[in-house]
Design a protein that fits this description.
With about 130 residues, the protein is mainly β. The protein has one domain: Immunoglobulin-like, CATH 2.60.40. Helix content is about 0%, strand content about 70%. The protein has no helices and nine strands. A five-stranded mixed β-sheet has the order 3-9-8-5-6, with no helix packed on it. A four-stranded antiparallel β-sheet has the order 2-1-4-7, with no helix packed on it. It is elongated, with a radius of gyration of 16 Å.
Length: about 130
């Protein structure tokens, strides 16, 4: 399995076939803390090979620089099925965060794992204005 896309964005939708994303970002600049983001989405896409067909569990979290979660871990069951004679298939996700609270300036990480195998960690920065 391979993570092809992972981003925070203003908006995302997944209809089971197409993942639509708008406004991908990885930096917030704000004069005061905590930062409260009214709404944002975590969007991603994982590619599975035929040998990986079957049930899987996707886990995602956002952690601070000390490794503490800033949101509860999100877990989703994925059923990977091949309906055509293709060597790979993708599963996508679009998860909305309402009132995402980032408590202090610094670097955060968005982490994704499937079946307890870490697939990616991407940074998220919260910075004061210059």
């Amino acid at each position: 399995m391979q993570l092809e896309i992972l981003t925070l964005c203003r908006e995302a939708r997944y209809n089971g076939q197409v993942l639509d994303m708008a406004g991908a970002f990885d930096i917030f600049v704000t004069p005061r803390m905590p930062l409260i983001v009214p709404s944002c989405w975590l969007a991603g896409r994982v590619r599975f090979e035929r040998i990986e067909e079957g049930p899987h569990q996707l886990k995602m979290t956002i952690i601070d620089a000390d490794g503490r979660p800033v949101v509860p871990e999100i877990a989703e069951d994925l059923a990977v099925h091949f309906t055509r004679d293709l060597p790979t298939v993708c599963k996508a996700f679009a998860i909305q965060f309402n009132q995402l609270v980032l408590p202090e300036f610094g670097e955060y990480a968005i982490k994704v794992a499937v079946d307890r195998i870490s697939l990616a960690s991407v940074p998220l920065y919260v910075l004061p204005p210059k």
